[in-house]
Amino acid sequence: MPLLTILGMPPKTSQEDLVNLTKRIQAAVEKVPILGIRADAVSVFYQPDLQKEGLGEELIARIDGLFIKPERTAEVIAELRAAIQDCMLTYACKSVPQCTYVETFVASMVKPEDCTVNRLRTEFCPKCQGRGGWGSDTPCDACGGTGRKSGK
Ligand SMILES: [Zn+2]
Q1: Which of 15, 20, 35, 144 is deepest in the core (most CB within 10 A)?
Q2: CA 58, CA 37: separation in Å to the nearest integer?
Q3: C-alpha 124 – ligand 1 centre gap (Å)
Q4: Is 134 in the same domain as 95?
């Protein structure tokens, strides 16, 4: 969290463009002081527009799941919006010539305690080769192994 959904993307947008825009948005969010959100905590998803008429004319960034915290005042949220809007405008001007409308809005903020997160293992269990269990500190569900390489 937070998560951004970019709406209105032409389906043929190159992977390189998407990866670059994602990185710029993540870096922009990280740079907003007070927020304290790391770049890798920002999820960016793209929702392609299937309608050909008017394709790419509107690009909209929807922000969801921003945690409610006392220091996240209206001014701080406005700064976040401006940072993302700036990325969107730069992208639209450079890569979407037909674009005439760019919007960024915060759709939802949530209490941190209302969010459940599990980071899944990226390694397989060295004992049973399964992926049982969530997180490297918990034992493997299947065999009880820790999922860590021996000696660590
Ligand atoms: Zn195992």
Answers
A1: 35
A2: 27
A3: 8
A4: no
- 29 burial type by CB count under 10 A (0-12 exposed, 13-18 middle, 19+ buried): buried
Q: Does one domain contain both 50 and 105?
A: yes
**Rounded to the nearest whole angstrom, what is the distance from the C-alpha of residue 139 to the centroid of ligand 1?**
8
* Domain assignment of residue 71, yes or no: yes
Give the model's confidence band at 150: pLDDT under 50 very low, under 70 low, under 90 confident, else very high. very low
Cα(68) to ligand 1 centroid in Å equals 38
- Going by pLDDT thresholds of 50, 70 and 90, the confidence category of residue 151 is very low
Whether residues 108 and 132 fall in one domain: no
Find the domain containing 51 and state its range. 3-114
Q: Is residue 100 domain-shared with residue 125, that is, in the same domain? A: no
Please identify which residue in the block is written with the tokens 């992977």: 15
What is this structure's pTM?
Answer: 0.82
Domain co-membership, 56 together with 41: yes
35 shares a domain with 19: yes
- Comparing CA positions, the residue from 28, 18, 21, 100 lying closest to residue 59 is 100
133 CA to middle of ligand 1, Å? 8
Query: How many angstroms separate the alpha carbon of residue 121 from the centre of ligand 1?
Result: 12
Give yes or no for residue 149 having a pLDDT over 60. Answer: no
Mean of per-residue pLDDT scores for the chain? 90
**Taking 70 as the threshold, does the pLDDT of residue 152 lie above it?**
no
